[in-house]
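=== Structure Prediction Worksheet ===
Name of assembly: unnamed complex
Input type: mixed (protein and possibly other molecules)
Chain count: two
Listed entries:
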Amino acid sequence: DGGITQSPKYLFRKEGQNVTLSCEQNLNHDAMYWYRQDPGQGLRLIYYSQIVNDFQKGDIAEGYSVSREKKESFPLTVTSAQKNPTAFYLCASRPNGEWGTEAFFGQGTRLTVV
Amino acid sequence: AQTVTQSQPEMSVQEAETVTLSCTYDTSESDYYLFWYKQPPSRQMILVIRQEAYKQQNATENRFSVNFQKAAKSFSLKISDSQLGDAAMYFCAYRSWPSTGTASKLTFGTGTRLQVTL
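=== Predicted Assembly ===
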């Protein structure tokens, strides 16, 4: 079945450690997105990518990094520079050429930093 | 930059009744897309309905319909015959018309939590 897979579902890390969240899609979508969700703040865009080896900063990119070496994969690294990393992270994708198509979302990763 | 505002943090509706969720947005663009997403307790984002800005006709999907007022930059969601399964967070989202060479941003509002009561 086609879809977007985020792993792990729950992730615990010690303060000061970098951590990488996985996002894989087999929908053959070009564009991929990372969002952070906090209570009362909705979804805020961290990074997005249109094609392989290309990505742009979103509204809250500080303390995060991404790579797009393969079309299917768009991993997000939460670095120690991110001041408040505990949150729910959502990955999404959509095809570039179908302008009216909505974004499809993974099931999310809940990151807790202790 | 585009912004999306949902001014109702929480709403409540009785089963079988109708409820309207509000959304306003700010943009200088003439062409764009608007979406309503539903996020149930499972936290899976599910598309409810979409609207293309160049279409004057309001979108409808079964019990869900929108009131799109382009000049007022308003995009409200009406849920008719509310069901218990409609209880969820609802997010309004704006997507820019795509331009060559860049992925279009998808901007979300802060959400409205809808409670459905018996």
